[in-house]
Amino acid sequence: MVKQERSTTRRDHLRVAEVAELFHVSPKTVVRWASEGKLPYVVTLGGHRRFPREELQQIAERLRRGQ
User: Fold this and answer.
1) 15-58: per-residue pLDDT in tens?
2) Quick one: pLDDT at residue 35?
3) Cα(66)–Cα(46) distance, rounded to whole angstroms?
4) SS3 (DSSP) at 51
5) Which residues, other chains included, contact 11 with Cβ-Cβ below 8 Å and sequence gap of 6+?
6) Are 57 and 19 within 8 A, CB to CB?
7) Sheet holding 49-52, edge to edge
8) What whole-number distance in Å separates Cα of residue 18 and Cα of residue 16?
9) pLDDT value, residue 9
């Protein structure tokens, strides 16, 4: 049996819970911020939000520095 690599979406994008952990907020806050246009995201075929890892890590870093 050949083990398949995770899809690009999983490596390059974060789930709501992972974003919540990154920003130290609740998952509901992440969903609200996304709905308000404060966080970039894409919607999967299954209807789940996925957030671009690099972009959110940059945002988190800017917030930590107070910019």
Assistant:
1) 999 999 999 999 999 999 999 999 999 999 999 999 999 999 99
2) 97
3) 36
4) strand
5) 53
6) no
7) 13-14, 49-52, 42-43
8) 5
9) 46
Nearest alpha carbon to residue 20 among 47, 56, 48: 56
* Structure tokens given for 9: 């979406």
Q: Which domains does the chain have, with CATH numbers?
A: 8-65 (1.10.1660.10)
**What single-letter DSSP state applies at residue 66?**
T
63: alpha, beta or left, given left = phi > 0 and alpha = psi -120 to 50? alpha
**Does residue 61 have a pLDDT over 90?**
yes
| pLDDT score at 2 | 52
* Residues 34 and 26 sit within 8 Å (Cβ to Cβ): no
